[in-house]
UniProtKB/TrEMBL annotation:
Database matches in Gene3D superfamilies: 2.30.30.1060
Domain Hypervirulence associated protein TUDOR: 16-74
Name of this protein: Hypervirulence associated protein TUDOR domain-containing protein
Listed Basic and acidic residues bias regions: 1-20, 59-69
Region (Disordered), start-end ranges: 1-80
Length: 80
């Protein structure tokens, strides 16, 4: 039986999702603000995202800063 290719995951990230990620000082937490699916500038740098390899703009709870991460770097958290 052939494998189904690139099915969306049930746990895919969306705007408003609470996430955590590894940061310089340990673990940071925040909220997904936007999904990026094409090459663009975000958070002060060029982001090489695509529909197959999306990246996410996240806002840190602690600093209020904006960052961009691949889905593999983000861990979905429970909503507050």
């Amino acid at each position: 039986m052939p494998k189904k290719k690139d099915q969306p995951k049930k746990d895919a990230l969306a705007k408003g999702d609470r996430v955590s990620w590894r940061s310089h000082g340990g673990t940071a937490e925040g909220e997904v603000e936007k999904k990026i699916t094409k090459r663009t500038k975000a958070a002060g740098r060029t982001v090489a995202a695509s529909p197959e390899e999306p990246q996410y703009v996240v806002r840190s709870d602690k600093s209020g800063g904006e960052a961009v991460h691949k889905a593999s770097a983000l861990k979905k958290r429970k909503k507050r």
